[in-house]
Amino acid sequence: MTKAMRLGVLLTRACSQTSRSQCNSQQIISRSFSKTIAISSAQNQPRDEVAHEEMTLLGSINNALDLALARDQTAIVFGEDVAFGGVFRCTKGLRDKYGKDRVFNTPLTEQGIVGFGIGAACAGSTAIAEIQFADYILPAFDQIVNEAAKYRYRSGGEYDCGGLTIRAPCGLVGHGGLYHSQSNEAFFSHASGLKIVVPRGPYQAKGLLLSCIRDQNPCLFFEPKALYRHAKDNIPVGYYELPLSKAEVLQTGTDITIIAWGGQVHVAAESINMVREKLGKSCELIDLQTILPWDEETVFRSVNKTGRVVIAHEAPKTSGFGAEIASAIQENCLYHLKAPVKRVAGYDIPVPHVFEKFYGPTKWKILDEVERIFEEY
User: Fold this and answer.
1) Active site residue: 80, 130, 180, 230, which one?
2) Which domain of life is it from (predicted)?
3) What pLDDT, in 10s, does the model give residues 122-165?
4) 265 and 195 in one domain?
């Protein structure tokens, strides 16, 4: 057990005693979201007479954390600058409401943050860690992959850190450059024992985050920061969860399947309208939502119907998670495929600051790839 993990155990025990005594919360993508706001709300969103409120994506995350802290007295929120609300204000007001023992700042050390979280979760806390940018999660790679993901396995189920959730803003934003615009979900997809989630909007962010917090496996929750203030939706103010490892079919179609997650869902939504208008083809759009373990059943069912696939993601093309999806599709749906599985992704270079808007998939790139498929196959 590392020093940070031991510290997490000790501080959690101290904090739990205290809390018990006290007790008796990118431009292209932005334009795409505003034009495709209808796809943000899940089709199975509750329709009973519950209170709803318009929230941004960051507002829904703040609301989810508020509810988690209120419902679970062992829950703690920690990270760099979270006490005053964090860089993006996702934790605004939570320290004032729940106290400095449950919402607190950490030193600037990602491996220390995650190591502390592992120790806290092992000691029985619901540990919710924030990494200020997903780009800087890599110093904690060893803690996440070799400790958090393997704790239950190496002890034969005797102990685990399933109460750990790690939040991190990710993705292209238009001006973040090589250190503030990366999408690194694929790095962690090799680690059995983790769950990885990327929401596309406020409704999904709140429900999926609450599910991650309650799930008994360590979860990585990557938040598309370009949507923090631009994504808005009318969502329930009360508690609800959305199932993990369940993709959502946002648009049914017959000619080609387009798979995306996070902010790319909105870009893909624009592209399917262009495909219909320019090519006269019907697209089926799937939001993967959970990267690990991903919903193979929904994807395979769609591909067997359409026979053609385009996968869009912001991460570099080489070894991006789209490669894993493409491989699985070709292994399981080969005799239904009418064309090779295609990927539209970021370039295999660092995200360029000046040219960031040209780096990732756009509706035009997706349209070009779809058009090429129908021309060549």
Assistant:
1) 180
2) Eukaryota
3) 999 999 999 999 999 999 999 999 999 999 999 999 999 999 99
4) no
